[in-house]
Design goal:
The structure is a single chain. The protein is of the alpha+beta class. The chain contains 5 helices and 11 strands. The strands form 4 sheets. It has a 4-stranded antiparallel beta sheet. Strands 6-5-8 form a 3-stranded antiparallel beta sheet, with no helix packed on it. A two-stranded parallel sheet has the order 1-3. Strand 5 and strand 6 form a beta hairpin. Helix 2 runs antiparallel to helix 3 (142-160). The chain is globular, with a radius of gyration of 18 Å. The model is unreliable at 197-208 (pLDDT under 50).
């Protein structure tokens, strides 16, 4: 399980990532089990990938919008039929936690849900506008338009479905995340020492 970190350009609270079919089959840590503090939203244009999100299987189809909530463990099995496709097959939006909490102070108390339905037209339209805006407008104030589109996207997604977090939800997964945070912090401070991380933090071997 990897803790993924992102670098933001020009202090923008978001990252836009167009995923090409062929790129998903290169050695890329994003395909393996990992987690991050950011909210991740993927909009599928082509293909049928399979996502494993916090113990649930979510099948991706064209027109679907897949949400990975903050600190949720996830990995992806890409569509093998897209191995030779060089065009964009999925748009991925990464949103910084501080931006989410500023726009929605109660964000930590809720999470977005995935369903089997195709994304509503308003979500599709916002995603398309967002990526067209993000890559075609290089003006100094273009980020304001992008941020307004992200807020609009979050609004539509909240109408689509949000649930309150419960302490009992996937409690073993959440415990592993908290333990892994402790492991990362400990390693940063003691990386020159010989340590038995699994024994010290009482973490299941499968986590490593």
């Amino acid at each position: 399980m990897n803790h993924e970190f992102f670098e933001y350009e020009d202090n923008k609270p978001y990252i836009l990532i167009p995923i090409q079919g062929s790129v998903t089959f290169e050695v890329n840590e994003r395909l393996f089990s990992h987690w991050h503090e950011e909210l991740e939203i993927a909009y599928c244009l082509k293909g049928n990938a399979r996502h494993f999100i916090n113990g649930e299987i979510v099948d991706e189809k064209p027109g679907h919008c897949i949400v990975t909530n903050s600190e949720f463990m996830h990995s992806i099995m890409p569509d093998k039929n897209l191995v030779d496709v060089d065009e964009v097959v999925t748009y991925v939006l990464i949103i910084k936690p501080s931006f989410l909490k500023a726009a929605f102070p109660a964000y930590n108390d809720y999470y977005f849900i995935n369903d089997d339905e195709e994304a509503p037209e308003e979500i599709k339209n916002v995603f398309e506008k967002l990526f067209a805006q993000g890559f075609n407008d290089n003006s100094k104030m273009s980020f304001l338009k992008s941020e307004s589109l992200i807020l609009e996207l979050l609004y539509h997604m909240s109408k689509r479905g949000m649930v309150r977090r419960k302490e009992v939800d996937n409690i073993n997964v959440q415990k592993d995340i908290e333990r892994m945070k402790g492991v990362i912090s400990f390693i940063k401070n003691h990386f020159r020492e010989r340590i038995a991380v699994v024994n010290r933090f009482w973490t299941r071997n499968q986590v490593f």
